[in-house]
Amino acid sequence: MAFRSAFLAASLLLGGVQSLSIEGMLAAPRRSTANVNPSGELALFTSSVYNWTTHKSSTTWQVLDVASGNVTKAPFGSAVSEFVWVGATNTSILYINSTNDEVPGGVTLYTADLGQKNFTATLVASLHAPFSGLKAAKTESGINFVVNALAYWNNGTAYNEELVTTPFSTGQIYDNNYVRHWDTYVSQQRYAVFSGVLTASYGGYTLAGEPKNLLFGIEDFVTKPETPVQPFGDFGDYDLSPDGKKVAFLTKAPELPKANYTASYIYTVPHDGSSAPVAVNGPGSKAPQTAQGASESPRWSPDSTRLAYAQQDNIIYESDRFKLYVATIEGNSTTVKSVAEDWDSSPGGITWSADGSNLWVTSEIHASNRLFVIPADAPASYKPANITGPQTSLSDFTVLLSGHALVSASASWTSRIFYIVSPTTTSETKILFDAQTVDPELTTVSQSRSSSIWYGPNENGDLIQAFVYYPLNFTTEKKWPVIFEIHGGPQSSQGDTWSVRWNMQLWAEQGFVVVVPQFTGTPGYGQNFTDKITNNWGGTPYRDIELLFEHLEKNVSYIDTDRAVAGGASFGGFMTNWIQGHALGRKFKALVTHDGKVNQYGAYATDEIYFIQHDQNGNLWENRENYGLWDPLSHAKNFSTPHFIAHNDLDYRVVQSEGLSLFNILQTKGVPSRFLHFKDENHWTSNRENSLLWHRYIFNWLKYWVAIDEELIQEGVIKQ
Ligand SMILES: *[C@@H]1O[C@H](CO)[C@@H](O)[C@H](O)[C@H]1NC(C)=O
Ligand SMILES: *[C@@H]1O[C@H](CO)[C@@H](O)[C@H](O)[C@H]1NC(C)=O
Ligand SMILES: *[C@@H]1O[C@H](CO)[C@@H](O)[C@H](O)[C@H]1NC(C)=O
Ligand SMILES: *[C@@H]1O[C@H](CO)[C@@H](O)[C@H](O)[C@H]1NC(C)=O
Ligand SMILES: *[C@@H]1O[C@H](CO)[C@@H](O)[C@H](O)[C@H]1NC(C)=O
Ligand SMILES: *[C@@H]1O[C@H](CO)[C@@H](O)[C@H](O)[C@H]1NC(C)=O
Ligand SMILES: *[C@@H]1O[C@H](CO)[C@@H](O)[C@H](O)[C@H]1NC(C)=O
Ligand SMILES: *[C@@H]1O[C@H](CO)[C@@H](O)[C@H](O)[C@H]1NC(C)=O
Ligand SMILES: *[C@@H]1O[C@H](CO)[C@@H](O)[C@H](O)[C@H]1NC(C)=O
Ligand SMILES: *[C@@H]1O[C@H](CO)[C@@H](O)[C@H](O)[C@H]1NC(C)=O
Ligand SMILES: *[C@@H]1O[C@H](CO)[C@@H](O)[C@H](O)[C@H]1NC(C)=O
Ligand SMILES: *[C@@H]1O[C@H](CO)[C@@H](O)[C@H](O)[C@H]1NC(C)=O
């Protein structure tokens, strides 16, 4: 038993303060990461709040003074959807105004200088489609920029939905298996990177011609290229070289079906589109041919001659380790070298140091995203040291001229924190801004209300980390009911981070101790630990959770394991359903499944086929026993614990019939159960009004079954 941290030290006295409410958590400012200017003196970020009286959200732009940490309002509002620092001065910006007076559904580009006392913006271009994802570089003659938008595949022009006439029929016909993805049916259009030139003329800039589709030259022999890769790709999927002359972008492999392979390649193309894109990696390229999987983070070096990126080896495994590469591109000749290849970590978020000698990267260690610096020519054996600690998890960072980094991070105890770290003096961390000290809604969230323990070893000899969150007025003198929160993925972590969907401090404030085990399969504990969940979903991970239960039962006096409940979303929902059919299910008083699978034989209704085929070690017809091995439905005979099921209609990842099947079985068996769905939500419940209802019903369910509240809410429940 390895007890690593202050499980007992968190005795709190938080008398008289307003606790974190569901409404408060949902309405409190949601701040973007900081976009720092070239001199490192200013940063801009957005803040979005919700008003429960008007039922509206509003977004403002804020300016962070880096020296003092002072935050003031920017001289423009939410019409500005994004901006880049570019132009004559260190405070010059180019921004996208999300409206266009001339073209419905179009946007406009403006320039401005935030250093001027009176804010004046100048309209420089009218774009005829909803372009976004702006990147820009100053050139001798003006500004070169790139943006992205949906494009027509037949002629490559940008697609503007508002200008399209609705067809008379709604039918859509398919000949291949990427029918829908996440929450959207795949259509004829694909996202593409477009390049544009703003020519400097006396007193301003003018757009030289229409933006040009840079993907249009790629030969597609199975699937159409697309950048950013949907649904989660963004402008991080492409990059403009600092000299403005070259663009790098990634797209899924055009020679492979998209639904059953993860492979994606990085292409480079001249910014003016004068020749077709050329692949840097992938089959037949100069890059190591061991790398066949997904690529990420293409980033040009300061001198525009090298391109850093990360790629996985495995062609169907989305949770394989990312390895770093640097491609040197001189004229038509490209060489590719791997960097720190043996480092057992999965780096991303690549940024070059100003002199081009180092790569700053983020990587997850023990469920928090940390910062590392690696020489761009590091040998295979190189092992970098993390610069940031486990207290926060990084969202983004900027390397400052001083060689320090300005970090945007969060933790369970703060929704946003900006601080400065140095790679050499690790102890010096200067906090510029901490939402917890500013937002009244966050008064009771606190670093002392979270901790982590390590338990085990488990059957493989691995120690398991679990994050622990404490209720208000926690004391070890009392016995507390406990929630087991089981994370999704399964190859993703749930550490000490802020979330508006699974906010663990909010859950704890309902009167529970909350434990969140990082069971076998969780990334950030070495690739081998992640890989051990393959074809083992209800095996080791289930027993890791069982081991945590035993640990709390035997060794933690203030946890009342007779009043234990469990729940989770996605894989966490699958595991909850698995628990319902097994011995551990009888130890919980109630369960909650959000968008979880119950029928493994129904796996092929999902959108990403590679995921199920990888995790079950093959397809359904040749490996039927693997799909049956961890099928919760096969254990429905044992289902008997009260169970709340939430499942949303637009969930194309785990289809809604999974939740409905489970609910109908529980009802048929007479097991107390409730079904909640939202017709307009996907795998996540994001809309704040929907989320409020979701939280209310779920918290009420859990409290009722451990006798914190007496009554189950009847308001709004639909009777037969
Ligand atoms: C915490 O303790 C204070 C002071 O005793 C009390 O006013 C408050 O209601 C308690 N809060 C909770 C959630 O128990
Ligand atoms: C931007 O700021 C840096 C650092 O203060 C300075 O060296 C540089 O000259 C400035 N650039 C411009 C264009 O003013
Ligand atoms: C929410 O809107 C109402 C009605 O406009 C207003 O009175 C109130 O001040 C707003 N609340 C906040 C926190 O801005
Ligand atoms: C920061 O803001 C405070 C309060 O508005 C002000 O007193 C102080 O002078 C500001 N500091 C700087 C460096 O701008
Ligand atoms: C955005 O564009 C609209 C016209 O489409 C204009 O009225 C408004 O002033 C612009 N706002 C900013 C901040 O550029
Ligand atoms: C800024 O604008 C205000 C109001 O339009 C004007 O009175 C003032 O003279 C301007 N200041 C400068 C420095 O241009
Ligand atoms: C491109 O193709 C689409 C679909 O056929 C068409 O609606 C659009 O007008 C075309 N655009 C141009 C510029 O030809
Ligand atoms: C992927 O699908 C294609 C046909 O769409 C098929 O030829 C190929 O064998 C499949 N590969 C895997 C790994 O499922
Ligand atoms: C580079 O490749 C292009 C297109 O294949 C060709 O036209 C050009 O001559 C080549 N340049 C050199 C320096 O080899
Ligand atoms: C790096 O990570 C380890 C493991 O979590 C941690 O013990 C150490 O404190 C971290 N380094 C810094 C500088 O925080
Ligand atoms: C991972 O497992 C492989 C095969 O079992 C082993 O050779 C390797 O040393 C392990 N790696 C680490 C970092 O433990
Ligand atoms: C309880 O703690 C003891 C002593 O640290 C340890 O040997 C034992 O394995 C623990 N039991 C469980 C179930 O974790």
From TrEMBL:
GO MF annotations, alphabetized: serine-type endopeptidase activity
UniProt source species: Massarina eburnea CBS 473.64
Keywords noted in UniProt: Glycoprotein, Hydrolase, Protease, Secreted, Serine protease, Signal
GO biological process: proteolysis
InterPro entries tied to this protein: 6-blade_b-propeller_TolB-like, AB_hydrolase_fold, Peptidase_S9_cat, WD40
Pfam families: PD40, Peptidase_S9
Name of the protein in question: Dipeptidyl-peptidase V
Compartment(s): Secreted
Region described as Disordered: 277-304
Signal peptide (UniProt feature, chain positions): 1-19
GO cellular component: extracellular region
Family: Belongs to the peptidase S9C family.
Domain Peptidase S9 prolyl oligopeptidase catalytic: residue ranges: 498-706
